[in-house]
Amino acid sequence: MIDKMNKNIKNIIKNLILKVLPPKQYRLFLYQYHKILGHLDREMYFINKFTNKNRTAIDAGANTGMYTVYLTKYFNNVYSFEPVPSLADDLAASKIKNNFVYNIGLAEENSKRELKIPYDNITGEPLYAWAYFNVEHIERSFLKKESIIVGCRTLDSYHFNDVDFIKIDVEGYELNVLIGAKDTINKDKPVLLIEVPSGRKDRNNILNYLNNMGYCGYFISD
Predict the structure, then answer these.
(1) For residue 137, is pLDDT > 70?
(2) What whole-number distance in Å separates Cα of residue 37 and Cα of residue 140?
(3) pTM of structure
């Protein structure tokens, strides 16, 4: 009950702020809010230390756009991919400089796929950050899930040039994204930041795939 009340209060505050601030200012406010509270991923602050060229960055699984906002501070062009329509629309409405938003999921081939959006068991709210293609990835038991059909494309099909950095946070679909980005990775050798929790069964498959492409990995643990 307390969790539900807290989330309802947060939603009320969010809606009030949205009425006052334009989309871009709201996105920047949200970024600063999470930064002040220490909610941003700490690996975010290592990005500019590992990239010596800041031409093009890819944000695969952009969600609310926190990485996107950060990346636009350092890269000339940031391409954000988000398959959840409402999240992609919100980010696009922010009209952040040098940011291009695609309401598309990245995968190993161009196709239409089923994206599942789970709902919070307590509040009944959609958990867009947990949206997934890979059924095996989600271990929690959600009482309600919504399925939508979304478009997917390979990163290679966009023929981006000078890609210096790729961030991938796609809830169990990391290897699929990497396979679809093989040519881009081989061509530009970008720095890769991939979220892969330690308990994941396919973790070694991802590491082996990257090793075969000439990459060596480093882990940042919580």
Answers:
(1) no
(2) 27
(3) 0.85
